[in-house]
Specification:
heterodimer; A: alpha+beta; Uridine Diphospho-n-acetylenolpyruvylglucosamine Reductase, domain 2; Uridine Diphospho-n-acetylenolpyruvylglucosamine Reductase, domain 3; Alpha-Beta Plaits; 5 domains; 7-stranded antiparallel β-sheet; 5-stranded antiparallel β-sheet; B: alpha+beta
Chain lengths: 482, 365
């Protein structure tokens, strides 16, 4: 993975830059010793590491603004960081960059049940937002797998999804407002407790902009009343195609499950060996979860099971109680852990039209043979969001590169069938150089024009999202302007 | 001008010597766009519809009626409930998909299901320099690059002219019902709507008509579930005068009336659309001294009829939100002005997407 060479003039001015940052932040909020900056050298894409120039941990919007103003004046790149759980390298530093971490900003600022909103500082973790409103039986809907650790700041930057977004939508559908600091230190407010934008929908553009347009320090989020109950049903099928058709039929029938999860045979086998959830050994397995009162759950499951039966399932298992529900989810929830036990793995998240599911799974199987690397598939089937896990051995020379090439081919396949490179993890550095396969030059230019407006010097998270060759003229122009 | 293809549209924009007034069906325009009319009606037709994937792709000039007919045949719909503004605005013509997107037009179900922007999966458009741009796609989850899909939704033709849009569609529910609470004053009505929306019964519409003193709550889904939830909802309001509406035609008509702002139709004056925090709505309506008001979105959307030329924004007081004049003229701009630093960003985006200032110039600024 190529990253731009660090700016030597910035490296040479490190002491001066750190001294200026210490003027506006408490001592413990500026981290500049190499022994400590190493903690920020990577995110969850651990294959790539680089300690930053320094890291700062502001406690307020005002402090974040003061930091950005200094970095803007000094021409120093800034990499915003939530909890560092990005699988795409969204928070990977460069040696000449300042990491701006929001971890200290984790307070709840306001909860308002009558208007169904919560306002938080963005360092707060996803799960603890739901935790803050649980006593009134409310919750925050987007639920990425990393929800215990991941911060709302990162959720907004990546427009995070989760298993339950089939019903509740992703971050952008649940984000109502932000307080954001622009690269020059200007603080702006977008949205709030009211709906929709007065003019252009800038909030919609901020969400998913991977920390390249500003640093979001506070957020107003929509909260929802918890459903009365939820229950999954597990079904096994003799072929991926059949499971795919079943998904399509459920959706068409008007049942709106909160989640439809799909696992293929390699994944079922690995999960079963790891978690002993009692899964049937078959080609494809679906977990479908519905919500509501007991009677409503029964009604929906009845319809779903009726549809499933038309596809000759090899297994149909309805959870009768909490314990059985837990066991049905156990294997699925431990899928990533199970893979980690077997080998190193790379997780992709390309999205495809649901109708292409059987074809794409078949092609991935063929490519797995060609590359000589095993793949397990587990994904959010209702919305076509794939999660192929490619297994490799990081200690074996050349395997990482081989795995990356294989991954790139899978993502190109997703684009070919009418899908996209990433459904919920973001582009970061991981998919940066594949953007040409999804977008024409003019499409990328239009996106980069947005960055030009928000961050004319391209200092915020500069070497991410856009292929380096596409953004080069902008990044070098910015350096020349210093 | 009425181009028939995306290429012709790009050439028309590139060849424009002055302002262009972008026009879809002409049913829901806000403010006045000056310039040579550029119509999108030629870019019409459904290009892809996969009911099993809940996806529809069509030319921006495709009439809404054509799309609804296709969806009807598969028992599906556009879940954001497109308002028909012809009655309120006194316009003619056929609403188009592009116009709906350009206005981010969303009805009562916005409070639960989301707005037009939340169902929009992808766009193709021609910017002010004549360049064709594609963003998003036809899949449900997509975080590949910046979300220009959201940027285009509600941009009223000022950043680019849409040529193709793709939507997530949803199945029609088996049944729908409405619980009507009678005789509630406005503060209590908004509180009742908050109670309903904060209950676990998936209320998909919450509106209050103060003139009729009717507070309406909608439930949709499978028949048995609707009956259950309607009873549960009713139990939340003991001692209130309540009626239930379960006839499908009557339920549909009731919500079409809210969606299309029927109580304010056919009356002289300016019509304003105010988005605010629901609990702020009753106080806001009082200070406005409007001639008529309709509350939608649990109070988060206030439709107000006021004497011509009334300056509404100075009357908002400290209430956060925004006010758009959807009908009428006056010295105030139709669109709510953004605060200075946000306005600078919006202006910057317009300059980048429309460097010559030919697309509906000045409409939103």
């Amino acid at each position: 993975m190529q990253m731009p060479a660090p700016d030597a003039s910035i490296l040479a001015r490190k002491d001066q830059i750190v001294a200026r940052l210490r003027e506006v932040l408490p001592d413990d909020a500026v981290i500049s010793e190499l022994s400590e900056t190493r903690a920020y050298e990577c995110d969850a894409l651990t294959a790539y590491r680089c300690p930053p120039l320094c890291a700062v941990l502001p406690s307020s919007t005002e402090e974040a603004s003061a930091v950005l103003k200094i970095c803007h004046e000094e021409g120093v790149p800034v990499v915003p960081r939530g909890s560092g759980t990005s699988l795409a390298g969204g928070a990977l530093p460069t040696a000449d960059s300042v990491i701006l971490g929001v971890a200290k900003m984790n307070r709840v600022l306001e909860t308002d049940y009558a208007n169904r909103i919560i306002r938080v500082q963005t360092g707060r973790t996803n799960l603890s937002v739901s935790g803050a409103v649980a006593e009134e039986d409310f919750f925050y809907a987007p639920d990425p797998s990393s929800q215990l650790a991941c911060a709302i700041a990162g959720n907004i930057a990546m427009n995070s999804g989760g298993a339950h977004c089939l019903k509740y939508g992703v971050t952008t559908n649940n984000l109502m407002g932000v307080t954001m600091v622009l690269m020059d230190g200007t603080v702006i407010e977008l949205g709030g407790a009211h709906l929709d934008a007065p003019g252009l929908d800038l909030l919609g553009v901020i969400c998913g902009s991977e920390g390249q347009l500003g640093v979001v320090t506070e957020a107003t989020l929509r909260i929802l009343r918890k459903p009365e109950g939820a229950r999954p049903v597990l079904m096994g099928f003799a072929a991926n195609e059949v499971a795919g058709e079943c998904v399509s039929d459920i959706i068409k029938a008007g049942v709106l499950p909160v989640a439809i999860e799909f696992m293929d045979r390699p994944c079922i086998e690995a999960c079963e060996a790891f978690a002993h959830a009692g899964y049937p050994m078959c080609e494809a397995l679906l977990i479908v979860e519905v919500e509501g009162s007991e009677a409503e759950i029964a009604e929906q499951l009845e319809k779903i099971i009726e549809i499933a039966k038309r596809h000759n399932p090899v297994e149909l298992r309805e959870a009768r109680d909490e314990d059985e529900a837990g066991r049905i989810w156990l294997g699925r929830k431990s899928a990533f852990g199970a893979m980690g036990q077997i080998n190193d793995y790379m997780c992709l998240d390309g999205t495809i039209p649901v109708s292409s599911l059987p074809y794409v799974l078949r092609r991935i199987g063929e490519m797995s043979q060609e590359f000589g690397l095993k793949v397990a598939n587990v994904f959010h089937a209702g919305d076509g969001n794939m999660h192929p896990l490619i297994l490799f051995n990081a200690n074996e020379e050349g395997q990482l590169e081989l795995c990356e090439r294989f991954g790139a081919e899978i993502l190109k396949l997703c684009v070919e069938v009418g899908g996209c490179l990433t459904g919920e993890h973001g582009v970061g550095i991981e998919k940066r150089d594949l953007m040409h396969s999804q977008y024409a030059r003019a499409d990328l230019e239009a996106q980069m024009a947005v960055k030009d407006v928000f961050d004319p010097q391209w200092l915020l998270n500069p070497a991410k999202v856009f292929p380096l060759d596409a953004s080069e003229s902008r990044r070098t122009l910015a350096i020349a302007a210093e | 001008m009425r181009p028939e293809t995306e290429k012709e549209l790009a050439e028309a924009i590139l060849g424009a010597n002055g302002a262009l007034a972008i026009r879809g069906g002409g049913t829901r325009a806000i403010g006045t766009a000056e310039g040579e009319p550029l119509e999108t009606g030629g870019l019409s037709g459904i290009t892809l519809y996969e009911p099993g994937a809940l996806t529809l792709v069509a030319g921006a000039g495709t009439p809404l009626a054509e799309v609804e007919a296709a969806l009807d045949a598969e028992n599906q719909r556009l879940a954001f409930e497109v308002p028909d503004m012809r009655g309120l605005l006194g316009t003619q013509g056929d609403s188009t998909l592009g116009g709906i997107v350009a206005a981010n037009a969303s009805g009562p179900r916005r409070i639960a299901a989301g707005a037009c922007r939340d169902f929009l999966l992808g766009v193709r458009f021609v910017d002010g320099a004549g360049t064709v741009v594609s963003n998003g796609g036809r899949v449900m989850k997509n975080v590949t690059g910046y979300d220009l899909v959201k940027l285009m939704a509600g941009s009223h033709g000022t950043l680019g002219v849409l040529t193709e849009v793709s939507f997530k569609v949803l199945p029609k529910p088996e049944a729908a019902a409405t619980l009507v609470l009678h005789g509630l004053p406005e503060v209590e009505a908004v509180a009742a709507m908050a109670t309903a929306l904060g209950a676990p019964y998936d209320v998909t519409g919450a509106a209050h008509d103060p003139a009729a003193q009717r507070t309406c709550l909608r439930i949709e889904g499978f028949a048995r579930s609707v009956a259950y939830r309607l009873a549960q909802l009713k139990a939340l309001f003991p001692g209130r005068e309540i009626t239930e509406e379960t006839d499908p035609g009557a339920v549909a008509a009731l919500w079409a009336g809210v969606r299309d702002v029927v109580p304010l139709q056919g009356r002289a004056g300016d019509v304003w659309r105010i988005s605010c925090k629901p609990s702020d709505a009753p106080g806001l309506a009082e200070t406005l001294e409007a001639e008529a008001v309709l509350y939608d979105w649990g109070g988060g959307l206030v439709w107000a009829l006021l004497p011509e030329g009334t300056e509404v924004r100075s009357r908002l007081g400290g209430v956060a939100g925004h006010a758009t004049r959807v009908r009428g003229t006056g010295s105030a701009p139709a669109f709510h002005p953004d605060p200075a630093p946000v306005a600078a960003l919006a202006e910057g985006l317009r300059r980048r997407f429309d460097p010559r200032g030919v697309l509906n110039p000045g409409l939103m600024a």
